[in-house]
Amino acid sequence: MVVDCLLPMARTRPKSDLLQGTLDLLILRTLQWGPQHGHGIGVALRSSSEEVLNVDHGSLYPALHRLERQGWVDAEWKLSDNNQRAKYYRITAAGRRQLALERTRWSRLSAAIAKVLGPA
Amino acid sequence: MSSWRRLRMRIQRALYLPAGADREMDDEIRFHLAEETRLQSERGLSAAEAATAARRAFGSIALAKENTRAVWVSTTLEQLVQDLRIGCRILTKAPAVSATAVILIALVIGGNTTVFSIAHGIISKPAPGVHATGLTTLSWVADDGDIETHAEHRVFAHFQEQSTALQIAAADFQRVTLTHDNGSYAARIGIVSPNYFETLDVRFVKGRSFTPDEAERGTSGLVVVIGHHVWQNSFAGIHNIVGQAVAVNGQLATVVGVVDREFRGAWLAEMADLWVPLVGEFRPWLQPNRSGVAAAMFGRRAPGVSLSSAQSELTTIWAQLQRAHPELDQKVRVRLVPYSATAGGNSIISTQGNRMLAIFSVVTVLTIAIVCANVANLLIARAVVRQREMALRQSLGASRARIVRALLAEGLVLSVVAWIVACLFAWIVSRTVVRLLVPAAQSEMVTPDLTPDWTVVGYALVLALLCTIAVTLGPALRTWRQQLLPFLKVGEQSVVQARSTLSRGLVVLQLAFSVLLLTTAGLAQRSLSLQDSADVGFNTRDLLLATVNTSASADDAKGNRALVEALRERLARLPGVGGASYIPGVGRLSNRALFPVRRDRAAEPVITVDRHVASDYFSTLGVPFIAGHDFRPHDTRTRRGVIVTRQVAEDLWPGEAAIGKVLIAGPDARAVEAEVVGVVRDAFFAGRSNDTRPRYVFFASAERPGPPGETTFYIRHSGSQGALGPAVAKAFREVDARVAIASLRSLESQIAVDAAPLWMLATLLTLFAGGSLLIAAIGQYAVVAFDGRRRIREFGVRIALGASSRQLVSSVISESFRLTALGLVIGFALSVAVGTVLARVLYGVTPTDPATFASVFVLLAGASLLASYLPARRAASTDPMVVLRTE
Questions:
Q1: How far is B58 from chain A (nearest CA, A)?
Q2: What residue numbers bound the domain in which B605 lies?
Q3: Same domain, residue pair B525 and B626
Q4: What is the mean pLDDT of chain B?
């Protein structure tokens, strides 16, 4: 079992806003390409990070439901490509705004960290 | 998706989350796993391998579901419900322990709540029918701390006129004769200012209250307000009651109103049947025992006025009045106290009420602490069994806080159940106590409303919450400090804890306390029953007591004496009557004011009880003269005559003849000389008391005739009392129809009424003692059970080595009996110490009465034996295989 460094380590309690927000950011970003179910999001995250971010699939769902509760994504039960009922998530207008916000914050943060670490 | 649909979904989620949302979540996860499995098999894995890989990639399904659910539900609420559910489940799993705990807590809360309910009913509730918001009572405090309720009428008039903070009303009360078409009756009257009913916010069912000018009219055009019961009983509830004529002590009056059913006056002691207006001028026919107009006062505060500002206003007004009138008592201060049915004055309740409540609350906290310690012991005994479970839960990730919360929920469930039981208990018991009180108080005061109200229920709730905390604290601390590893490494039985000295100490304390209560209760019961069966010196059966009020028929002391004599002679001539006599007053036997008599002015006084009696008193009772004779109607002696009991004569003049001797009677300042005309045999004239030698002196009531009022006749009869009653009433009517009969009863029942408070105390004491024994026994049970649990491995080993179960039982019991022995020794020592104090009030038993002590010993030892035997049996039935297998 691989525990991703970006994920909350323990169970219920969110360890830090940054880490939790990061997973949210990645999900929102993935959903920008179109509606997707939970598994699809997991697969997309894995492949787009070139297998670096191996998200524990179980932890996707709390994040998805949290986003849904905040109104950043919508959910709908649809038939999947192989004709199975699946819950598809779609980014909302509010979600897009949140994504833009989080992206700026993230790039500012990573730039800052890069500056601190300096050229190796 | 429309926002409407989203809203609906959200509501659905909130409502159906446990079932619907869970199913949806299951579907979602199942789909995920199916997709992942498909993906893996496409990569070339076998079906089984693919499924496992999918599961591995997903992580903990339960965790994911739990976390996802937590997104939607307020977790704390859900956990609380869950905790409570678990609490209920744990309690129903061990019903015996839970029932014991509930009964214990219910007993202690219920007992305390009952006492609180009674104290609250007597000390702080308003009188029935009064709306007490903003009401205050005025008291007059002297320098020496003496507190008066009454003040002169002019003080009231001045206060009423000057005060802006208070609407002040005044009231006095008196016994009178009420005459109407159906006859004359003894009644109690309230003499009240016109604004009395308005100030107390009393409802009228008929007619109206007094108008201010009615207070100024005086005797002509007298008006009365009558109580609901008078309207119903004396006027059969007639429709046109307003305008009916009645006579109060012979003065004609018109009924103007009827008050609400409940209302009998602002104070419990008032118990009025009717009310007349208070006037400034003195009316001797209404208040023959007073010399001027005086009344007690209370006021309703104007809106927004605090008690302290009203107090400062009244202080100022009083100071001005004192300056203007130097003849007023300059040392007295006015004090405002919150109104209640017993507030004001220097009655024990109003002056000591708060102190009693304080003492009571200390006792409450102590008993609750002891009982909670017991329950905690019980729960700890069970918690030991669950230690491994707790350790396991912690190691699986349950936080300590969560486990403590579960324990708290368990305690809460216990306490809530106990609280409900306790409230029912208090409700039933306080109603029973009222029924016990009524015969004792009999027409002396309004029965206070003792049934629990919301304050009392709230009080019980606070106690229940206290119990929850107290009960949970022990097990919770144990869990908090608990080391996980030892419990996980070894079996359930292997971890030995230190035995608790505290809980053993508590058990000994409880046992000692029970012994003390049991011996005291036993002594009280024995003393009272000995007293009841003791010979009083005359035949108490076939003696009828009739109290009458002559206020309406006689104008002065002389007329009253003639009337009462005529009544006596008429009674004595009735068929079946062996003799009749009378004493002034209502004939309560228990008033025993101490009265010193001396041989001469320098001698040490002999303390006696004095009585004023008419002639034939002794022959009616059947107490023979040893020497001398009864009072004679036309004695020509100049000195007062006195009749003494044998013991008094013996004390004053040992070995001499007492007849013709002169004694000095009364306290120093008012001492008078009296010549002994007769000596009677010793007898308990006031019913049995704890004095072994009763000492009485008697004076002739004819020598000092009192004003019209109450007189109590003693009638010795041979037939049945039921037949005599109507004949006596008829005889009174024949002499004077305006004579009001206040009560007819036998001497036996009068004695029983007088002794009722003592019996009630003894019964209460016995109940307390029983409760305390129960608590102590359960406490001991808990400790022995806990010990048995703790040493279960030792027992297992002993059985494996060949110990018989009888040996084990006796070893456990003998160990437990060390506590019992210690408790008995301390308890008996305490009892002897308390007994020496009690000796003065005990009758016929010594403080170390062997029979009482022996029965207490047997009772306590038996209870203790039972409490140890049950857990000892369980320990002895340990299966050594089960215990040793876990090694």
A1: 4
A2: 551-738
A3: no
A4: 81
The answer to ipTM > 0.90 is no
CA B235 to each of CA A4, B179, B543, B770: distance values in angstroms, whole numbers, following the listed order: 94, 12, 33, 49
B274 with B146, same domain: the answer is: yes
Phi, psi of B196 (to 5 degrees): -55, -55
Inside any domain, residue B82: no
Same domain, B334 and B356: no
Q: How many CB atoms lie within 10 A of CB B434?
A: 17
Confidence band for B590, pLDDT divided at 50, 70 and 90: low
Instruction: With CB atoms and an 8 Å threshold, state whether B57 touches A12.
Output: no
Measured between beta carbons, the chain B residues lying within 8 angstroms of A91 are none
Does B61 contact A58 at a Cβ distance shorter than 8 Å? yes
How do residues B792-843 score in pLDDT, each as one tens digit? 778 888 888 888 888 888 888 898 889 899 999 999 998 888 888 777 777 7
A64: nearest CA in chain B?
A: B68
A contacts of B66 (beta carbons < 8 Å)? 11-12
B111 within some domain: no
Taking an 8 Å cut-off on Cβ atoms, the answer to whether A82 and B61 are in contact is no
Model pLDDT for residues B617-635, shown as the tens digit of each residue: 999 999 999 998 888 876 6
Q: Domain boundaries in chain A? A: 17-117
Tell me the per-residue pLDDT of B751-805, one tens digit each, with 9 for 90 and over: 777 777 677 777 777 887 888 888 888 888 878 887 787 777 788 888 888 888 8
Same domain for B41 and B182, yes or no, is no
Q: Are B433 and B115 in contact (CB under 8 A)?
A: no
Q: How many independent structural domains does chain B possess? A: 4
Total residue length of chain A: 120
Based on the domain organization, do B367 and B227 belong to the same domain? no
B217 and B269 share a domain?
yes
- A-to-B residue pairs, Cβ atoms closer than 8 angstroms: 79
User: DSSP class of residue B690?
Assistant: S
Q: Tell me what the mean pLDDT of segment B175-189 comes to.
A: 84
* pLDDT tens string A63-77: 888 888 888 898 888
d(CA A89, CA B65): 18
Do residue B522 and residue B637 come from a single domain? no
Helix ranges, B137-191 (H):
153-162
What confidence tens digit (pLDDT) does each residue in B374-431 have?
777 777 766 666 666 777 777 776 667 777 777 778 888 888 888 888 888 888 877 7
Q: How far apart are CA B412 and CA B416, in angstroms?
A: 6
pLDDT attached to residue A14: 38
Pairing of strands B204-207, B245-248: unpaired
Q: With CB atoms and an 8 Å threshold, state whether A59 touches B56.
A: no
- Flag if A57 and B60 touch (Cβ within 8 Å): no
Contacts for A64 with CB less than 8 Å, ≥ 6 apart: A27, A38, A41, A73, A75, A89
Give the global pTM.
0.61
pLDDT > 80? residue B16:
no
Q: Does the distance separating the beta carbons of A56 and B72 come in below 8 Å?
A: no
Contact A58 B56 (CB under 8 A): no
Q: Show which residues on chain B lie within 8 Å of chain A, measured between beta carbons.
A: 1, 6, 24-25, 27-29, 31-32, 34-36, 38-39, 56-61, 63-68, 70-72, 75, 397
Q: Which residue of A37, A59, A74 is in closest CB contact with B64? A: A59
- Nearest Cβ partner for A12 among B35, B56, B70: B70
Q: Where among B313, B339, B365 does a domain terminate?
A: B339
Domain contains B79 = no
Residue B793 CA to residue A112 CA, distance in Å, equals 64
Q: Are residues B370 and B519 in the same domain?
A: yes
Tell me which of 1.10.10.10, 3.50.50.60, 2.160.10.10, 3.40.50.300 is the CATH number of domain A17-117: 1.10.10.10
Min CA distance, B73 vs chain A (Å)? 11
- Among A1, A61, A82, select the one facing B28 at the smallest CB separation: A61
Please report whether residue B617 resides in a domain.
yes
For residue B59, list chain A residues with Cβ-Cβ distance below 8 A.
Answer: 1, 56-59
